[in-house]
Design brief:
Strand content: 15-25%
Number of strands: 10
Structural class: alpha/beta
Helix content: 40-55%
Radius of gyration: 25 Å
Shape: globular
Length: about 325
């Protein structure tokens, strides 16, 4: 009886000492995250493509202004490869404290689930949408040495040489790739799609004459159009864009009803605290409403958008469903 009493006393003492520690731990865990405490260090925006493309330009423009809003430096870090999947996976597995963000593009966010058999991340579940940033039409351009002056000329050339005409893109499964696949299907032509690690290297090869054409963002192509190193033949939006008023829409150029495009936004890892999400969303909306930022975006063929995290999440899910149909129709086999 004496031994048992001692064991009970010892156990009771241990529990009495442990209880305050457990309680303190629970209180610490339950302490609410304060938006005022964020950010506590440098914020990084990961761009999953090479420098020089549309996503890189948008990230740097928005990142500079975001740094001013947050009072901390915002760095842009390029992690290209696998059509955006390497950088995307990196952010999906990052600490959800708001210090590592992803410049999300419609391509890998909405096409990857249907493009890859063993995708290491789930675009619909592994991210916290913060805000849509811009919508962007695509532009069809050719190397000036290619003997075409219009979209119809290009279609006629492709039909005369099935599978020989080359169209570059920023990576398998990107919006540019799927846009070109959709274009080829819509125009009933067979072309050779060449994938690169981002739009910039594809543009370099187009200027060099290694490939014949490219379907890409205006922000990537406009500088080279101004220097006449590339020839624009059609824009894929419903209306002409103000920065290239002489370039016809695909419908005007003879491909009636054809429209495609892409979007860019900012997301973080899933599990980010609500106060931080709200703070970032408010900052981004304010940035997009700044007249100077809006002007700079429009001058590059980008339409400022914005919106709530919930609306951005819906856009992502809708895109996943739509691209699943396009990929299946194009006969693209998951890698």
């Amino acid at each position: 009886m004496i031994k048992i009493a001692r064991r009970k006393t010892t156990l009771a003492f241990a529990l009495s000492m442990l209880t305050p520690l457990v309680g303190a731990s629970l209180l610490a865990t339950a302490t609410p995250v304060r938006a005022d405490d964020y950010p506590s260090k440098i914020v990084r925006i990961v761009v999953p493509y090479s420098p020089g493309g549309a996503s890189d330009a948008i990230a740097r423009m928005v990142g500079e202004e975001l740094g001013k809003k947050l009072g901390k430096k915002v760095l842009v870090e390029n992690k290209p490869g696998a059509g955006g999947n390497i950088g995307a996976d990196y952010v999906a597995k990052a600490d959800p404290d708001g210090h590592t963000l992803l410049l999300a593009a419609a391509g890998f966010m909405t096409a990857a689930p249907s493009m890859y058999k063993n995708l290491p991340f789930d675009p619909a579940k592994d991210y916290q949408p913060l805000s849509l940033l811009v919508h962007a039409p695509l532009l069809v351009v050719v190397n000036p040495d290619v003997e075409v002056k219009s979209l119809q000329d290009f279609i006629d050339l492709a039909k005369s040489k099935p599978g020989e005409v080359t169209i570059g893109n920023g990576g398998v499964g990107t919006a540019q790739h799927l846009g070109a696949e959709y274009f080829a299907s819509y125009a009933d032509i067979k072309v050779n799609h060449i994938a690169y690690k981002g739009s910039a290297p594809a543009t370099v090869d187009l200027i060099s004459g290694i490939i014949n054409a490219q379907l890409d963002n205006l922000v990537t192509l406009i500088p080279h159009i101004k220097t006449e190193r590339l020839r624009p033949i059609a824009v894929t939006s419903a209306k002409r864009v103000s920065i290239l008023p002489d370039v016809p829409t695909a419908t005007e150029a003879g491909l009636k009803g054809f429209e495609t495009g892409t979007w860019y936004g900012l997301v973080g890892p899933a599990g980010m605290p609500a106060p931080i999400v709200a703070k970032l969303n408010a900052a981004l909306l304010d940035i997009l409403q700044q007249p100077e930022i809006s002007k700079r975006l429009l001058e590059q063929g980008l339409e400022p958008s914005g919106g709530t995290p919930e609306a951005f999440s819906e856009l992502i899910n809708e895109g996943i469903a739509r691209n699943a149909k396009i990929i299946k129709a194009a006969g693209i086999e998951p890698q």
